[in-house]
Amino acid sequence: MLTVDTLTVAYGAIPALHEASFTVGAGEVVALIGANGAGKSSLLKALMGLVAHRAGKLSLDEADLRGFSTRQRIARGFALSPEGRHVFPDLSVQENLDLGYLGRDAAEAMRRAEAMFALFPRLAERRRQLAGTMSGGEQQMLAIARAMMAGPRLLMLDEPTLGLAPIVVQQIGHFIDQVRKQGLSVIIAEQNAEMALGAADRAYVLENGHIVLAGTAADLLRDPAVKKAFLGL
């Protein structure tokens, strides 16, 4: 479904991503693992059109997305739950979800919100609560649910488990498994390699802006270099 060919990103003179190439199939979960600063967030931002890429090609269903704005990419099926959550703290859970829906059909917006409450029952209990008063785990659920309100074909999760309790990490893993069964494609950018590889079909390892390893998630879990660098084994 998604093909990324030799994508290069830089901030001024500072390179962030060097000729990254990878693919994501329909209904596939792909993990991007690497340390902080490896280039994971820059890659996702480039896919969303939030930062420009200096070179390379990005295509969805073989259609070149060069020149597409972020809004146009969302309309084509991209959605991003950003690192740090970035919920609107002074708005309620329901209002945050409403902002994730870009259409004009009130009934459809309500249907999608109810689907998110079914996926994340904790949010249903807090639909009128201000987002800024919720726990970090609840805010992460809200950030993911808000991204899902756009009805994506490809959901990108940037550090979804950062700083969260193990039980919340498990809940996010369960969510990924559920949406995969519905045919949604997912990219997980994570420092928590054990979680990401446990949830993914395939994975890529980034180091200093370069993809240095690629393979099935199961194979990378057994790879000695991955075990030493990311799993403490």
Structure description:
This protein has helices spanning 40-48, 70-76, 93-100, 106-119, 121-125, 136-148, 166-181, 193-199, 217-222, 224-231, and strands at residues 2-11, 14-24, 29-33, 55-60, 63-64, 78-81, 154-158, 185-190, 202-207, 210-216. With 233 residues, the protein is of the alpha/beta class. It folds into two domains: 1-83 and 162-170 and 184-196 and 210-233, Rossmann fold (3-Layer(aba) Sandwich); 87-151, no CATH class. The strands form two sheets. It has a six-stranded mixed beta sheet with strand order 6-7-8-3-9-10, sandwiched between helices. Strands 2-1-4-5 form a four-stranded antiparallel beta sheet, with helices on one face. The model has no long low-confidence stretch (mean pLDDT 92).
In a nutshell, what does this entry contain?
The protein has two domains: 1-83 and 162-170 and 184-196 and 210-233, P-loop containing nucleotide triphosphate hydrolases (Rossmann fold, 3-Layer(aba) Sandwich), CATH 3.40.50; 87-151, no CATH class. The chain has a six-stranded mixed β-sheet, sandwiched between helices. A four-stranded antiparallel β-sheet has the order 2-1-4-5, covered by helices on one side.
